[in-house]
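note to self: dont lose this again. the chain is below, predicted strucutre after it. 446 aa total, dont forget to put it in the shared folder this time
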Amino acid sequence: MISLGGAIGTGLFLGSSLAITKAGPAVVLVYLAAALVAVALAYALAEMVVVHPHAGGFGAVTNRYLGPFAGYLQRWSYWAAQVVTVGGEVVAAGLYVRFWWPQVPLWAAVSFFAVVVVVVNLAAVKLFGEVEYWFSAVKVFALVMFVVLGAAYVAVGLPGRDAVGLSAWTDHGGFAPNGLSGLWLAVTIATLSYGGVEAVAMTAAESRQPDRDIPRATRRVVLRLVLFYVLATGIIVAIVPWTRASEGGGITKSPFVLLFEVAGIPAAAGIMNLVVLTAALSAANTTLYLASRTVHSLALDGLAPGRLAATSSHGSPVGAVLVSTIGLAVAALAAALSPGDVFPLMLGIGLFSGMITWLLVFAGHWAFRRRRTAEGLDPAPFRLPGAPVTTALAAAFVVSVLITTAFTAEFGAAWKVGSVFTALLCLCWPLVRARRRAWQLAEANR
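---
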């Protein structure tokens, strides 16, 4: 549920319209293709963390198999992506509240939700898990109802409404009205939508039986993500003409709201606003968890200040959580001062850094497999099928997506800002390495 909480958010409920704009009804194939890469990522991560269920998840594994620099670059990139995301999700939650109470100042709503998310993350890990479980359950329930209702409308119809079938898949310009270029741009968007699936690997150190829990969670997450994304988008473009489903404009223009309205459900916008509010809070809750565990693992490896490695009596890394709340403050300030200019820059860091993280995961998995074979070790109990071929293909896919973002209007800021941020991380590495060596020497002399 933690992994679903990270991967199913406003990107699906509201962002799917952007993918539909690019691909038309062929968006079904787009989400399926991106899902295959997400599946490969989830299985590769599970294979590695089952063998190494250490704090920091995949970042610790990358440090082990690709070296300290790769581990440093991956974890700080991932931390930046999560910090940006948590701020954006909390601001989104504040905007959703104003759907009902427009007189509420945005800063007040954002501050309230920020405090809630921080308190949950500072509490015992068990409390965090319980809260995230129920947050995710609301989203899952809404999606299940959506899929069931939509499938019934497509196949047999609803009371007072005849079945619509799949004719809308070929109307209004055909199945892929914008050609191959539109399909590929939509693939880029869809791939970014699956960001968060890697969360399952970050929970290994806090799982009671990671060798049992992580593979089981991975299988379930993969199945549910594929079903939710592929089925949901397929139903949308079957019931609502893709030219209408691709409209932007907030809650009332969400493809999910449009379907509820077409089906004759009253107060569709209000119901979906509650769902996306829960989705935003769930994503913020999970994202802060991921950011804090990432910087905590950096501190454990001497790549961040040592005080960030400390945990409370409840097992929560308090210092790491508090440092990771910087995104909340920056996002709130950006919302107040210049949301149109600052948020695209923050989003650029998040998107670019997220893809860098995925690429290093696949590189780490390749090195993991190669070293175990060279050392004559038994295969991991849970494995990515077809590796290393599937690993290489998935990595090539991520590289192509990363390059494509540089040529899209929506994600052009990813390269402008993300590449600069990555360059700064590289420039800081000599100083961090020197500090790490001094830390290792001090630890050895204790």
